[in-house]
């Protein structure tokens, strides 16, 4: 076992961190959030030039073929700096689903994405899915020259800015529900994007499929292939959300310790009160425990280990609970000042809470863990 | 020992219920149901106060001669509980709950005569100017100065976290009138018009995107010495007394019951990933049961405190404050689960009083994210959870 980054990985970590330190201080982020544009297109272009948008894609598709470890490194920094640019939505969700398909348009589309010219969104989950990939209600009916889509996708991040969306629906074939994925231009007639701002400083939408007619060439994948694409994409995504939490936790701990050392009440630094010291130590413990599972799950995923899913569920549960505890402690220890929009602390809290409920809650991932663990440890199971 | 309500109390409860049924308009009730903070939004609080003032119920804790009631402790609890249950908005506490009792106890006849009716009628809206940037938990270290100048004081300094200063016309402040003696000894309690020359109110945006708190700046503000409450340099005694009114006189469990009712309602409407209703989900219902049991323990603790220590709640208010605020935060966190994927939606305008437009997602859960965020403050304000524990360690356990 080895939990050290190699030289290249250290370099990547260093360059992403240095770039964000120079270009992404909190004040600037807030200006962007409060501006009319959802995110900073210039920054996005710069990241394209630095090659970062190509990280998770194969060389064949014009990317760099980085592994889950490199992606984790990048997302820790994105979390630490509260980056709102849609790395997660365009690269991990949209790009992640697209790169796993065999659609002829894939390479061309990904190359545009990597060069920073194309944005995407993955519109799969619905109000009642609550993280369960198989649980959607949108319907696809077969027509003469393609399909007609009906339904509603909820809280689709980056949909307002997307050029393309990947949409899922169920097609009833001979009494069986067949999962289908479609690649659609976002301006497709019938695709209604009800946009809104989100608590965590981003833009998302309810995506209404009002009888969207698509031709057969829009079909990206179906059946077990579509399911596998989604499972693998969301597993990658869950890990990267944990990585984001990880960066946030570290920064929260750092800022809290710093603040507690400076803030004086009763003639002494509040960091000298033992009850606060212990609470900060608990933040530290939580951060390290979460990190261990994040590393373990990421390495299991790189190795395509049979228990990777189990570890991803475990990492998600641990990361969400630790991140929530760390952020809540950070607010409490800062006192009144942390309840304002002016300090970063509350923004970490918002991002953490929101992210922890997007693709299934803690309760959901505990259940998934339970299910997978029963399968693994059942007589004749893999363990 | 006896848990039963007397026949008189039951009759009173029914009277309160009937009044609430008649008087709570749908928009007031919606506003009360969708509260995101310990405070209702300003418009609904003032609208409800006007209705209560007409009925004579706006300030139950005040003596009858000043427009209060002669209710027993039990009746006050019944009233609070029924109001919460019916979805009534909360009244802003700074005038009625905090300053009113102080004036009644320490105010001059002229102050009582002039100010109390204006609090009830809503003509005066008061805010509380205690905390300063450098004086939070350590309130006694406050720095705002009041320097005597003939019959007046000249005020300089600043107050922060002043709730609803941007909607108030008056502020009561703790100021230093003597900087040479021990910190507590040199503090006075003074009333200030917010439209006096030299006062600036700067709103602070909270993490839920709303403005409730402000920073208030005082630059050479001239205030008559008649505006002192209590004697010069005796403000600390007044302030401490007020803090007890602030911490006590509140019914945590009734507010938590309302939160739990919302959770139960949503649990009957929302489904888990497995496709059954949350209320039937064994894990969720166990989590809910845990909190309901905690609520019951809190409820009877509050009842005991209120019955035992009528008028003199002492350190027990610290116990209730810690238990109440920490439990309400746990209920907030449980509710997040039910809101699920709609948590990120920013729809603050849909929470405003009288809102009739459209919104996305279940209306019954509209306030959940904001309430969670806002309520993080409840273990910070009014004496933080740590400070309350320090008080109990010292005063109760003698440590
Ligand atoms: C939403 C909100 C509304 C408010 N409304 C008003 C208002 O209307 N009027 C008003 O005057 N004030 C108001 N306040 C201010 C409030 O009373 C203060 O925030 C509170 O006293 C804490 O002070 P602080 O924020 O400066 O935190 P600090 O005092 O700086 O505390 C920071 C942390 O240190 C801890 N700490 C401090 N001392 C000790 C100790 N001795 N031992 C252990 N831990 C300690 C605290 O518990 C906290 O966790 C409000 C605050 C909030 C958040």
TrEMBL record, chain A:
User: Which Pfam family, giving just one, matches this sequence?
Assistant: Acyl-CoA_dh_1
Q: Which InterPro entries match?
A: Acyl-CoA_Oxase/DH_mid-dom, Acyl-CoA_Oxase/DH_mid-dom_sf, AcylCo_DH-like_C, AcylCo_DH/oxidase_C, AcylCoA_DH/ox_N, AcylCoA_DH/ox_N_sf, AcylCoA_DH/oxidase_NM_dom_sf
The keyword Flavoprotein is assigned to this record: yes
> Does this UniProt record's set of keywords contain Oxidoreductase?
yes
What cofactor does this one take?
A: FAD
| Alphabetic keyword roster | FAD, Flavoprotein, Oxidoreductase
Domain Acyl-CoA dehydrogenase/oxidase N-terminal, first and last residues per copy: 6-81
The record's listing under Gene3D superfamilies reads:
Acyl-CoA dehydrogenase/oxidase, N-terminal domain (1.10.540.10), Butyryl-CoA Dehydrogenase, subunit A, domain 2 (2.40.110.10), Butyryl-CoA Dehydrogenase, subunit A, domain 3 (1.20.140.10)
Q: Name one GO molecular function term.
A: flavin adenine dinucleotide binding
Q: Please state every residue range assigned to the domain named Acyl-CoA oxidase/dehydrogenase middle.
A: 135-212
Protein name from the UniProt record: Pimeloyl-CoA dehydrogenase small subunit
Source species, please? Parahaliea maris
- Taxonomic classification, please? Bacteria, Pseudomonadati, Pseudomonadota, Gammaproteobacteria, Cellvibrionales
UniProtKB/TrEMBL annotation, chain B:
Q: What are the protein's GO molecular function terms? A: flavin adenine dinucleotide binding; oxidoreductase activity, acting on the CH-CH group of donors
PANTHER family listed in its UniProt record:
ACYL-COA DEHYDROGENASE, ACYL-COA DEHYDROGENASE FADE29
Q: Which organism is it from?
A: Parahaliea maris
Q: Where does the chain cross the membrane?
A: none
Keyword vocabulary terms for this entry: FAD, Flavoprotein, Oxidoreductase
Q: What is this protein called?
A: Acyl-CoA dehydrogenase
Provide GO CC annotations from the record: plasma membrane
Q: Which family does it belong to?
A: Belongs to the acyl-CoA dehydrogenase family.
Chain ranges of the Acyl-CoA dehydrogenase/oxidase C-terminal domain: 233-397
Q: Which cofactor does it need?
A: FAD
Q: What is the lineage of its organism?
A: Bacteria, Pseudomonadati, Pseudomonadota, Gammaproteobacteria, Cellvibrionales
Q: Which superkingdom does the taxonomy of this entry point to?
A: Bacteria
Q: Which InterPro entries would you find in this protein's record?
A: Acyl-CoA_Oxase/DH_mid-dom, Acyl-CoA_Oxase/DH_mid-dom_sf, AcylCo_DH-like_C, AcylCo_DH/oxidase_C, AcylCoA_DH/ox_N, AcylCoA_DH/ox_N_sf, AcylCoA_DH/oxidase_NM_dom_sf, Mycobact_Acyl-CoA_DH
Domain Acyl-CoA dehydrogenase/oxidase N-terminal spans what residues? 10-123
């Amino acid at each position: 076992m080895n939990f050290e980054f190699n030289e290249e990985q250290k370099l990547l970590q260093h360059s992403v961190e240095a770039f964000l330190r120079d270009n992404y201080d909190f004040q600037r982020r807030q200006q962007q959030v409060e501006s009319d544009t959802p995110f900073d297109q210039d920054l996005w272009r710069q990241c394209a030039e630095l090659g970062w948008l190509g990280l998770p894609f194969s060389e064949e598709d014009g990317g760099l073929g980085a592994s889950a470890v490199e992606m984790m490194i990048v997302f820790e920094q994105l979390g630490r700096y509260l980056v709102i640019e849609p790395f997660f939505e365009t690269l991990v969700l949209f790009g992640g689903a697209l790169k796993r398909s065999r659609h002829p348009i894939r390479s061309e589309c990904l190359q545009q994405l990597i060069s920073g010219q194309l944005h995407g969104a993955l519109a799969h989950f619905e109000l009642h899915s609550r993280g369960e990939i198989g649980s959607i209600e949108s319907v696809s009916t077969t027509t003469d020259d393609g399909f007609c889509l009906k339904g509603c996708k909820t809280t689709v991040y980056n949909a307002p800015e997307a050029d393309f969306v990947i949409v899922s629906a169920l097609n009833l074939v001979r009494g069986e529900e067949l999962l289908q994925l479609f690649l659609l231009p976002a301006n497709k007639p019938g695709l209604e994007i009800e946009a809104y701002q989100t608590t965590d400083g981003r833009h998302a939408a309810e995506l209404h499929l009002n009888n969207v007619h698509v031709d057969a060439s829009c079909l990206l994948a179906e059946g077990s292939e579509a399911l596998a694409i989604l499972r693998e994409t969301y597993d990658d995504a869950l890990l990267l959300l944990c990585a984001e939490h990880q960066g946030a936790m570290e920064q929260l701990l750092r800022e809290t310790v710093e603040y507690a050392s400076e803030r004086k009440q009763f003639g002494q630094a509040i960091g000298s009160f033992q009850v606060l010291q212990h609470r900060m130590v608990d933040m530290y413990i939580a951060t390290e425990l979460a990190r261990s599972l994040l590393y373990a799950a990421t390495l299991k995923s790189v190795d395509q280990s049979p228990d990777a899913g189990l570890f991803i569920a475990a990492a998600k549960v641990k990361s969400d609970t630790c991140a929530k505890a760390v952020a809540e402690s950070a607010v409490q220890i800062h006192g009144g000042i942390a309840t304002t929009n002016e300090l970063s602390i509350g923004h970490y809290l918002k991002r953490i809470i929101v992210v922890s409920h997007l693709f299934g809650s803690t309760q959901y991932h505990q259940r998934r863990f339970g299910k997978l663990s029963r399968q693994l440890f059942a007589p004749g199971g893999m363990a | 020992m006896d848990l039963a309500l007397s026949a008189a109390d039951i009759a009173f409860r029914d009277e309160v219920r009937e009044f609430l049924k008649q008087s709570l308009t749908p928009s007031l009730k919606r506003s009360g149901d969708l509260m995101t903070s310990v405070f209702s939004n300003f418009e609904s609080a003032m609208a409800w106060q006007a209705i209560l003032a007409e009925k004579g119920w706006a300030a139950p804790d005040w003596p009858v001669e000043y427009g209060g009631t002669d209710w027993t402790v039990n009746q006050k609890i019944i009233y609070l509980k029924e109001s919460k249950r019916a979805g009534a908005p909360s009244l802003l506490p700074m005038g009625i709950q905090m300053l009113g009792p102080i004036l009644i106890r320490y105010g001059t006849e002229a102050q009582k005569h002039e100010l109390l009716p204006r609090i009830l009628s809503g003509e005066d809206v008061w805010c509380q100017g205690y905390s300063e940037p450098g004086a939070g938990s350590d309130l006694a270290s406050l720095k705002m100065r009041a320097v005597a100048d003939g019959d007046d004081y000249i005020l300089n300094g600043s107050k922060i976290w002043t709730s609803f200063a941007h909607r108030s016309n008056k502020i009561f402040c703790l100021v230093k009138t003597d900087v040479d003696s021990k910190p507590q000894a040199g503090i006075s309690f003074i009333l200030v018009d917010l439209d006096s020359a030299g006062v600036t109110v700067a709103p602070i945006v909270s993490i839920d995107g709303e403005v409730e708190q402000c920073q208030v700046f005082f630059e050479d503000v001239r205030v008559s010495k008649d505006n002192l409450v209590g004697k010069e340099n005796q403000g600390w005694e007044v302030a401490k007394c007020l803090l007890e009114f602030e911490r006590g006189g509140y019914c945590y469990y009734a507010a938590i019951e309302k939160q739990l009712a919302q959770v139960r309602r949503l649990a009957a409407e929302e489904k888990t990933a497995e496709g059954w209703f949350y209320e039937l989900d064994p894990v969720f219902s166990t989590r809910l049961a845990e909190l309901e049991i905690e609520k019951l323990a809190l409820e009877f603790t509050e009842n005991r405190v209120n019955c035992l220590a009528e008028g003199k709640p002492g350190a027990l208010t610290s116990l209730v404050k810690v238990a109440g605020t920490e439990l309400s935060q746990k209920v907030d966190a449980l509710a997040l689960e039910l809101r699920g994927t709609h948590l990120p939606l920013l729809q603050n305008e849909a929470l405003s009083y009288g809102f009739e437009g459209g919104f996305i997602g279940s209306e019954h859960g509209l306030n959940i994210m904001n309430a969670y965020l806002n309520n993080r403050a409840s273990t910070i304000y009014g004496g933080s959870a740590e400070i309350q524990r320090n008080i109990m360690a010292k005063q109760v356990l003698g440590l």
